[in-house]
Amino acid sequence: MSTHDNRVAIVTGAARGIGQELAVQLAERGAKLALLDMGDCSETLAAVTAAGSEAIAVQCDVSSEADWISAREAVLGRFGRADILVNNAGIFPFANIDDLTPEVFRRVLNVNLEGAYLGVRTFAPVMAENGWGRIVNFASNSIATNLAGLSHYMASKMGVIGLTRGLANDLADRGITVNAIAPAITRTPGTSVMPSEITDAVWGQQAIKRFADPADIVGPVLFLTSDDAGFMTGQTISVDGGMMKL
Ligand SMILES: NC(=O)c1ccc[n+]([C@@H]2O[C@H](COP(=O)([O-])OP(=O)(O)OC[C@H]3O[C@@H](n4cnc5c(N)ncnc54)[C@H](O)[C@@H]3O)[C@@H](O)[C@H]2O)c1
């Protein structure tokens, strides 16, 4: 399918996990990719190229405004435009309030929430030049769980939902939609360190009772970044096997 032909998509956290799967599936649908990560994106770069697309890998700490400005220069230098931004990069260190230092609290907010803001601040004006843009932010269905040790993470992801609602209002007149997804607990390198009692207890709350794979999460992001979703904005979509229900 070529739903994303010639779109230029920026995916953060593209080195592994959900971001890597998303980059490959966007490439398979015709998008050109900018792979942003603090880590090594060479594996994703090879997979995107094997899928027949073009990509660049850019070292970027999403909490750094200077890194975002460098990333914009790299994207415009290679592709001359930007159409899609997926703010997927995120961190989820567990820390009960007894152990939650101000440094960990601020880092989680800086990466998960401020990182998304900086990405939009950097790339929305570029999308606006063509009067078309798609932004997808990553929330989490953990906000609805009773997991201990995630207050900072839940705060950051609730912030992402608020950011998404507000940005939808700000950017609608430029042809840019802004939505979020709230994934289920998903089998990635990031969750591989979690004990199975925790992961199994979370997915046990779902209607579809299994540990999600990155491919389960990516489909709705493809939809939200396509022409088909042009009249949807400001929404947070649960992609969680039916754990959260309206
Ligand atoms: N895996 C889950 O169970 C789950 C559930 C709900 C939401 N999410 C969200 O989905 C997103 C991806 O999760 P994942 O499980 O694939 O994570 P992961 O840990 O497997 O991969 C995250 C990637 O982001 C990169 N990254 C981390 N901090 C960064 C920074 N400051 N700047 C740039 N890159 C950075 C890492 O290098 C890594 O490549 C995150 O936002 C996470 O909060 C994940």
Structure description:
This protein is an alpha/beta fold and 246 residues long. It has a single domain, classed as 3-Layer(aba) Sandwich (Rossmann fold). The chain is globular and about 45 Å long. A 7-stranded parallel sheet has the order 3-2-1-4-5-6-7, with helices on both faces. Helix 1 (17-28) packs across helix 7 and helix 4 (102-128) runs parallel beside helix 5. Helices cover 42% and strands 15% of the residues. Bound molecules: nicotinamide-adenine-dinucleotide. Nicotinamide-adenine-dinucleotide (NAD) binds next to helix 1. Residues 12-13, 15-19, 37-39, 60-63, 88-92, 111, 138, 140, 183, 185-186, 188-191 line the site of nicotinamide-adenine-dinucleotide (NAD). Keywords: Oxidoreductase. This is SDR family oxidoreductase.
Q: What are the key terms here?
A:
246 residues; alpha/beta; Rossmann fold; globular; binds nicotinamide-adenine-dinucleotide; SDR_fam; NAD(P)-bd_dom_sf; SDR family oxidoreductase; oxidoreductase
